[in-house]
Amino acid sequence: MAQNMLSKASFVILAAYVLGFLAIKIIVAVIYRLYFHPLAKVPGPKIAAATRGYEFWYQGLQHTKFPAKIKELHKQYGSIVRISPEEISLNDSGFNVEYFMHDKKLKKDPWYYYFGFRNALFVLSNKKKHKERQTNLANSFRGSYWKAAYPMMTREIQILVGKFEKSAEEKQELNLSKTFRKTGNEVLRNFLLGEHYDGPNSNSGDFARQADTFFHPLFRAASWTRHFPVLLHLQHLIPSRAFAAVVPMVKYNREIEQMIRRLIFHHDASVRLDYKHALLYKIVDHDPSYRDDKCKAAIEEFMELLWGGREVLGHSLSNICFHLMTNPETMDKLYAALKASDLNLSTGSYAQLRTIPYLWAVCKEGIRLQRGGDFRISRTNKNDVQYMDFFIPAETPISMSPNFFHQDENIFPEATKFKPERWLSGDVERLEKFWNPFGNGSRSCGGRPMAYEIVFRGVANVFRDYKMDFSNCDPEYCSEEGMLEVFPQSTTTGLRVSVTKRAA
Predict the structure, then answer these.
(1) What 3-state class would DSSP assign to 390?
(2) Quick one: CA dihedral 377, 382, 387, 393, positive or negative?
(3) Cα angle vertex 503, ends 498, 504, to 5°?
(4) How many CA atoms lie within 13 A of 462 on its CB side?
């Protein structure tokens, strides 16, 4: 018994030593971060300088509220704010447009861009590999390969218009959030897998529903996995069925992994030309490394393109419609401009439609005001940076948000208002310089041509024939409920409207 008591006492003493050591280590780390760290003089809340838990509180526990909090911090502290022990945020349009858009020495901050993906283009840190893949992807959105996709996009726009027609005839409300994301889903699915793909998940309804099940939770989960990377490994430690029952997105993830591996495995033996004409095969043939590690890079690239693409298209179209409904006179001006055009709007391409000045202005302004621009761009620099009186050591993550540009009153007067006319007169070239929803340079969004194509064609074809009004919610309620957010919460019902067909 004495020996057992001694063993217990030894364990208690050891535990006390360990806890004491950890406590001292934490205290020393906090003191260093607050008073001796190279960023100690940068203004900002002390708790943010002490721990990343400050970001986790707003981003992880309050459903991605950190971007809004950063805006508040800039109003309180100024253009430079320390938002974590190692990262600063800069809200200075003149500095940011040169630093982030043109400096080729910058690299993506690996901590911020950790989604569990390591090989997809969006998070790829190897600059040489990124440039090769980005160039190949960009080539897919131009030339004969891109033109061959026009009939498919025309068909999907016609299907989209058909949903508005049905809503108007049956006098039933239409959920724009779901309708536009479904269109984005179909366009991306056809572009990635080929129009005649009939394998697993070929049913478009199942595909869209499962995409919602997977991508929305994945986006929210990223707010947790950055801080607790071990969470990503749990799915490999817990039996698949048990984990999928708790986290439904895991089941969809496994299905996509199996589907992509099967498609690539049979790719070389396939003689079906309609299968061959798919972006998935094009990128794999261009870069054999996509096949490495059980096609992990190809799987991640597929999910990234589908996830990002469908959300950009759905989110952009929903926001433009929202602002047109809150400004009926602008909707009527757009209708008049579309009716006056000699173009065939049903088959007109983005290159043709952008020649309608008011349509171009409406789309530019709607995209400027979308919530997707709230998310920050975080970069590191191999060189030291001097900003005003603040010295920023090399490799320090410096971040900004595209909406810092878009909501700058010095660039866009009355920045929170929807004013398409600002794009039709004045110094439009200056506005273009700071209009940055898709990034610039080698790290910009490679799929922006598709975004322009679907957004312009969708807006032109819908508003040529239909008027919309809020169904059973007002604009303030829609905004408060998060209906206009990227990846809205599952409790949000979506932007619902009543549709009326205009007289011929």
Answers:
(1) strand
(2) positive
(3) 130
(4) 30
